Each structure stands twice: as structure tokens, then as C-alpha cells.
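ok trying this again, last paste got cut off
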Amino acid sequence: MRAVDQVGWARIRRGAVIGYAVAWVVLVLAFGVPSGRNIIAVLLVAGATIPRIGYGWRAYGRAYLDWLPFVAVLIAYDKTRSIADTVGFPLHESDVLGWEKGLFGGHVPTVWLQQHFYDAQHVMWYDAAFTLMYTTHFLATPALAAVLYIRSRVVWRQFITRVVVLSVAGLATYILFPEAPPWMASQDDLISFHMARLSARGWIWLHVTNLQTTLAHAQEAGSNPVAAMPSLHVGFACLVAIFAMSKLHSRWRSLFLLYPMAMGLTLVYQGEHYVVDLIAGCGYAVGTHYVLNAVERRRAARKREAVAGAV
């Protein structure tokens, strides 16, 4: 590609980035933060092709193939409920509730948090903070993946492999071990306290009720309500934190651990997960990261041995 062409295509790519950012702003203001897997998949692939503009159709095809496993995982998430219903494994409610009570001396943390902080008549500022934290689940992992894809395809491949493996492990568990979250256990009268599902409540305080409606609809119609064990919300937050910490050398990198901690508090307060779900989610994330670390080290060692043998 000639230098003149490179300059021209670079300008086009910069314009495409600006247009992409504007499209995101318009989309969020008009319809809310995207939570549907299909629309997230479309937006991801569209963004991933921007750095490939001007490099030919082969470059576009490579980008599509790169992101295909991640897109497949996003779409597969919504199918786990129908598969679980077909397989017919029993729904776990009272047993998991018993584990939670056993862990906290007969108490349920969600009940305690909502008794002390939830006000049915007034939406508080921390409801908004919790809703914003909950919403980052839909953005943090794909955003980090997109940044890594632009900066280093090698590091991106490491991260996206962890995302796919963690997702598959979680999705398989949802099928084999469907679990009712705290808000559903309350509806089924297993918890005497009337528990509210508060994920979308904070949008009221922020005066963007259209986003509340969008998120609530996505939860009711587009997600698996018994996908509670493990919590992939906190699992992905944990994966983002430990992967970022493993690649950074700043003394402040441990602050990334605040993200899964904040996400965990959010999920328990909002009635979305038990603490035991959070423990499982973090365990899945940490296990995925370190198992793949070992695989990558062995693969690198074999390559070094092959190069040394060739010399």
C-alpha cells in the first residue's frame, strides 16, 4: 500500500471510529445500554472491523473469524434455559439457600442488605450506583477485548480464550445445575422476606426510566432466570481484574480487585445472586486463568525447544 493510500485510509479509519462512538451514544440515549446478546455481537464485530478498513477483504474475514467464538458464546447464553428444560435436571432452590444460611449462621445477606438499605418508597443514590455497576457487566469484558484487539492480537487471543473457556464452563453448569436466584426463591416463598429485584431500579434516580424498562425487559424475556451458579457477572469482573493485573506493572494494579468486590456487593443487594454463587464465579475465573497460564507456558516452552533443536 502506497504512503498516500495509507494516509487516506488512516483518515477514513479515524472518521469511522468517531462515527462508531457517536452511534454508541445515540443508541444508549435512545434505547439504553445494550444487553441483548445479538445486538452486542453485531456492535462488537462492527467495531472490530474498523482497524481493518483499507487492508482488503481478507483482513475483514480474519476479523470475523477472530470474533466468531466470542459471538457464538454470547448467543449460546440465551439458549441454556431451553436446553436445561430439555435435559430435565431439577431446579436447585432450597439446597442452595441452605448453603447460604450455613455460611452466614442462618442469615441470608441479601435479606439483611435489603432490610437495611432498600426503601420501596424512595430510590436512593446508591441504587443508581448499584445499577450502573450492574450495567458494566455488559460493557467491561467486550470493551477490554476490543482495546486489546487493536493493541495486540497476541494478548487479545490470550484474553478471549479465557473469556470463551469461562463462558463455556459457566454455560455447561447452568444446564447441569439450574439454580433459582434469591429473588426467585422469595417469590416461591422459600424466603419469608419479600425480596425485590433491584437491578434496573437505579435508572429511576438517574431520570432515565426508558433504560429501566429496557433492562427489565431484557431480564424477563432475553435471559436465563435460573443461570445463577456460578455468577458469571462476578466471574467476568474477576477475570477482567486478574488479567489486567497480570499484564500491568503499576503498583496500583491491585485496585482492579475492587471491581469484582463492587460487582459482588451489587449482585447480592439486588437479589440476583447468593454469596455462594459469587464464590463459585470467582473460582471459575481464577481456575480458568491459571489453567490457561500453564497451557501457554508449556506451549511457549515447546516452541523454544523446537527452535533450539532446529538450530
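PB: full thing came through this time. Residues 188 and 239 are 33 Å apart (CA to CA).
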